[in-house]
Amino acid sequence: MKVYVYKRSFSKEYIRAFYSGDLDVTLMSSAPSYHFLAKLTNSSKLIRLLRKVVTGRSGKFQAPYSWTDVLQSFFAPVFLLFVSKPIILGMSPFSNWIYYMCLLKLLGKKIIYHNSWPYWDALAHPKGIKMRVWTW
User: Fold this and answer.
1) 2-135: which CATH topology?
2) Looking at residue 11, what is its pLDDT?
């Protein structure tokens, strides 16, 4: 069975159970601009030097994903509107992505909401939580 996982990063830490069965998992990121800049930084010494001047950080990102993954993630919000297979949305609670999830649900998509709430400590709560609590 094919499923699409749309989450913040390409990390498989919280979704490794999906890979243990007979599921054909397609992983897409909801932060493609970050991953694009990480891949660009890793591929160019000039950009790494510019990053060091601007941010004071040097070195490469851990980027175990391909340019195809990054491009696929740029178009994922539109692509998921036309998918008939189940979609697993991994997002933080009270995120603005809840509006996108509602849109997909209104279009009749099979949505599974997945988050890592049990793993959060007191410092990792999203900012502005009081302003968006009405969406729940």
Assistant:
1) Rossmann fold (3.40.50)
2) 75
